[in-house]
Records
---
Amino acid sequence: MKTVLVTGCSSGYGLETARHFLSQGWNVVATMRTPQEDLLPPSDRLRVLPLDVTDAASIDAVLEAAGPIDVLVNNAGIGLFGAFEATPMATTREVFETNTFGVIAMTQAVLAQFRARRSGVIVNVTSSATLAPMPLVAVYTASKTAVEGFTASLAHELEAFGVRVKLVQPGYAPTTSFTSNGQARMQGLIPEAYAPFAQRVFASFGKLQAVTVASDVAQAVWHAANDTSGRLRYPAGADAVALAGAAAVDGQRAPA
Ligand SMILES: NC(=O)c1ccc[n+]([C@@H]2O[C@H](COP(=O)([O-])OP(=O)(O)OC[C@H]3O[C@@H](n4cnc5c(N)ncnc54)[C@H](OP(=O)(O)O)[C@@H]3O)[C@@H](O)[C@H]2O)c1
C-alpha cells in the first residue's frame, strides 16, 4: 500500500487531496501547522502530523515520524493580493518562505530516500497565475513561477533515478479559505492611487464564468501522482485548463 504526505491539510485543496487519497486506499500522512484530528474521516491508514514548511526542525521531525513515503504533495501556500509598490520586503520574503523555500526544503528532504529506492513522486502545487499574468499578484506569482522553473529543471535531473516531479496548476477557488487566510497580510497594500484600479480587478473576480473547486485539484494531484509518463504540468479546474490552452496557443508554453 502506498503512502502520500500532503502539506497544508487544514483546509482547501490540501484537505481535499488528503481525503481523495484516503478514499483510494492509500496511507495518508496529512500534515498541518496545527493538527486537527477530526477534519478527515477516521482511518487506520491516516496519520495527522504537525508541519510548518518554513521550519527546518519541523520538516526533519515530520519525515522521521512519517517513515518511508512514496509521494510528497507540496500544497501548503499563502496568498498575497496588493500593489507591489506598497508591499513591504518583509511580506515578500514571508510569501517566498512558504510558497517557494518551503517547497524546495521539503523536496530536498525527501530526495535521499526517493533516489535510494529509485522511485517516488513529488507534486508541487503552483497556480494558474503562472499561466497568464494578472495584476496585483506580482509577488505571489513570482513565488509560484520560481517553483515552476525549479520543478521543470529537477524533473530532468531526477529522471535517471526513477523519481518523477510534477506541477499541478490550480485555478481560482472562491470556496477555499485562501483569501480569508491572507487578509491580515494584505492590510494596507492598496494605496489610494491604486484603489480605483483594484476595485475593477476585484469586481472582475465576481464575474468569472469558470472557477476551480477543491475536488478538481485533488483529482489533478491524484492523476499527477499516478501518471508514469514524463508529463510535467497538470492544470486543475475549468479556468486553469482554459488558461493553459490559451498559453499553448500563444506559444508561451508547450501544451502540458
Ligand atoms: N484558492 C485559490 O484560489 C488558489 C489558486 C491557485 C493556487 N492555489 C494554491 O493552492 C494551495 C492551497 O491553497 P488553498 O486554496 O487550499 O488555501 P487554504 O485553504 O488557505 O490552504 C492553505 C494551506 O496551507 C497551509 N499553510 C500555510 N502556511 C504554511 C506553513 N508555513 N507550513 C505548513 N502549512 C502552511 C495552511 O495551514 P494553516 O491552517 O496552518 O494556515 C492551509 O492548510 C496553495 O499553495 C495556493 O497557493 C490556491
---
Amino acid sequence: MNAQQALKKFLVPPEKVREYFTYLHCANIRAVLDPAVPMLPSTLEIKPPSRKPTINNHPMKILDRIHLRAPLKHLACAVALGLGAGTTHAAVIDISGTNINIDTVVGAGNTGRLIGDTSTATSAFTSALDLNGYTLTLNGGNKNGAISGNGVVIVKGNIAGSTGNTYTGTTTVSGSVTLQKTAGNALCGDISVGASASLNWSYANQISDLSNMTLSATASLALAGKADTIAGLTLATGALVNTGAGGVLTANSLTVAGVVQPGGTYTSSNSAFVTGSGSVVVLPAGTSYEIWASTNAGGGAPNEDYDHDGMSNGLRYYMGAAGTLAAISPPVVTTAGVRTVTWPRDPSAIASFKVQVSTNLSTWTDVVPPNAAIDESIPTQVTYTLPAGAAKQFCRLVVMP
Ligand SMILES: [Ca+2]
Ligand SMILES: [Ca+2]
C-alpha cells in the first residue's frame, strides 16, 4: 500500500487512522503530509519506529487532535491549529513524548492549543506557543519557543532561546530551573517558586518587570551576579536570594515572613535572606514622579509649570495638596534667636532634595541631607535652620524627583 492509498483509506473511515498509521513508515507519513492533502481529519497517534524520523517541510493542518509520542524526534514543518468546517473540536497538539521539537505553530489563535508535556519525560520545543487560556507544563529540555497568550505556565525545565516570552497569567516553578533567554523575558506573570525549587540566572533581566514573585520557605534564587527588576518580592521565612558576585534584584516592594519591609538596600550583612556580595534593592514606597505627572501634569518635566500657576510641576508633586504659592516662600520663624524655615512635603512623593543658601541671591551653597541643619523628623515637612551670624541670608528648597 502506498501513501496515497493509505490516505484514501483513512479519509473514508477516520476512526481507522491509528490502525493505518501503524503500517506507515516515515516516508509514507511524509507523503500523507503533502501540501496537496495537508489536513489530518481526526485523532491521530504517530508511533513511528525507533529510527526517530523527522517530518520535514510539509505544512500540516490539524483539525482535531494529534498525539506526538516518543520517539518522534522533530516536527520540522509549519503546523496550523484550528477548527475545520464541520468539526466540533478545537485542535490540539499533545507533546507528551520525549525530545520533540516543533519549529512553527501558526494560527493557534482562538481554537487551537498546544499542550506541553505533562509527564515526567523531557520535552522541548522551538515553536511559538499561544497558551490560549490553557496550562502549559514545561519539563526538562530547552524551551526555546516564544510563549504568548494568557494561561498558566508550569516550569520544570530550563527556559532558553532568543525571543522573549510575553504570556500573561501565572507561572509556577518547581525543581531547578535555569533562565537562559538571550533577549526578552523568560518568565512573565506572577511567579510562585515552590518548595525546594531554585531559579538560576544565566543572563540579566529574565523576569518581567511587572511580575510579583513569591518564594516558599525552601525556595531560592541564584542571580549569579546578574541584575533584574521585578514588581514585588515575597519571601517565606527561610527563602534565600543568592546574588552571587554583585548581582542586584530590584523590586518595588518586599515582604518577608508576612511583614512588609521598607525601601532600602538589603545585603548579606543586614539581612538573613541574602547571600553573596550583591543586594536586593527595594524602592521606596510611594508614587513616582512619572506616574504623578502622567495624571497631573500632562507628563511634563519637573521644572515645567503645567498649569501656569507659578509653581513648578516638581514642587507641586513634592509638596502635594499642601503645596501652595505661599508654601514655596514660607516665612522665617525666629524662636529664641534661632531662625527656621519650613516647607510642606507629601510623604508619598519619591524625591530627594537639598536646601540652597545664599547671602547675595547669586551664589548658592548646597546643604544636602543628612545634615544637622535639616530636620525631617515630621514626614509632612522639611525644616531648615539658618546658620547664625550673617544678618541677611536667603534659602530655597530644591527637589529632584
Ligand atoms: Ca526584569
Ligand atoms: Ca504649576
